[in-house]
Amino acid sequence: MKLIMFMGGVETLEYFSMEIARYLEEKGYEIFWYNLLVGASEVSRLKGFFDANKSEDFIAFTFNHEGIAGEEGLYFLDSESVKDTETECGQADCKDSLNSQKLASNPKLTNIWDNYHVKVINMVVDHPLYYHKYHKYLPKNYHQINIDKNHFEYMRHFYPEIKNVSFLMTAGMELNKDRDILPDRPYLFMDERKYDIVFTGNFTPKYILQKPIEKMGQDYIDFYESVLTRMIKEPKETIEKIGQEALIKEIEGITEAEIREAMQTMSYVDLAVRFHYRELMIRALTDLGFKLTLVGEGFEYMKLKHPENLNMLGSGNTKKCLDSISQAKISLNVMPWFKAGAHDRIFTSMLNGAVLLTDSSTFLDKEILTEENCVRYSLELLRDYEASGFDLGLIEDFGVKLRNLLEDKEKLSKMANSAYIFAKNGHTWKDRAKIIEKLFYT
């Protein structure tokens, strides 16, 4: 069996892929790395790999539809479509002018994965509603992994034609797993860590997120803003529940197919509520006087009362994020709107010796989080803090608890050790790769 994996796309996803590949290569699998940056010229090299291994079975593993999103070279008109196109254009070279727009509009497409009978496994680490437009490109032999149980149910409900769908949590990354930085221990001691609290991520203000729906008109803006308002007020609810209820209320007689189509525009709400609470948590911490180190982009757009409490390190790749977390006493996580899954920041914080500070869910409380391995905060508390006009009295107790913890190095160390042991024994990409490998043979 031979494998195909992808590089040159989203940097974080490539990092995840490299972590998975490490285990697979140890098991003896040969991996062809398809470079998405090279584009169509990479296809001939891939075909050579297929032709040189004709007796083998092939598996392609990817994240977030990379390589199965209609990319030129990997997707092309089938022979019958080419004949039709030549007739319509009146010239043979019309077929050479294909671009992504034409590919997207032409239903008679084939792809290299089907031509070479490749099984494609796609791990989607965002909500599936973001990828509705790519479903027309799915290979015939396709398996989708979802990192949230609600996403899994969403796929089962709205895409029953996709038969092979499963759930698997994301995982964490350990900077010092090879002991090439600290040979005698997995991570820095608490008194060696220079940052009190670190957050790795990005921020996009609402006025930028809103630009796509502004083109749709004021009625649409008002509709999506009403959905966002409800999401902010009810932070335990999911985007799929509130989104569907809003569509059914707004459009009399809307069909399941129409809901499926309309849900992709709920990406605005999903992103806006995520960044809203991200800003609220950072505001709360800085209002309480905590010094917060940020790795990522867009934080200058946040409306904060005390921006002087921020230490902004600028944008950074995965390695820079890991470096920063590994030097933090506490690592802040603000969940994307996953209510039955985890974010990799949870496990990465644990694997690098930082105490996790996170919002939670029923799923996380049951499967992952304990009093011994993390500190939890409430989205409802942040909601009420904003509604009060930012009355510090509402969050004072939380601030005292967090400050006492930062001053108690022994307790911090015990929590970090408990979390490290937990994550190391079941929540690394090697652990996930073992499960993914089983899908090769099903």
UniProtKB/TrEMBL annotation:
<feature type="domain" description="Spore protein YkvP/CgeB glycosyl transferase-like">
    <location>
        <begin position="278"/>
        <end position="436"/>
    </location>
</feature>
<dbReference type="GO" id="GO:0016740">
    <property type="term" value="F:transferase activity"/>
</dbReference>
<dbReference type="InterPro" id="IPR055259">
    <property type="entry name" value="YkvP/CgeB_Glyco_trans-like"/>
</dbReference>
<protein>
    <submittedName>
        <fullName>Glycosyl transferases group 1</fullName>
    </submittedName>
</protein>
<dbReference type="Pfam" id="PF13524">
    <property type="entry name" value="Glyco_trans_1_2"/>
</dbReference>
<keyword id="KW-0808">Transferase</keyword>
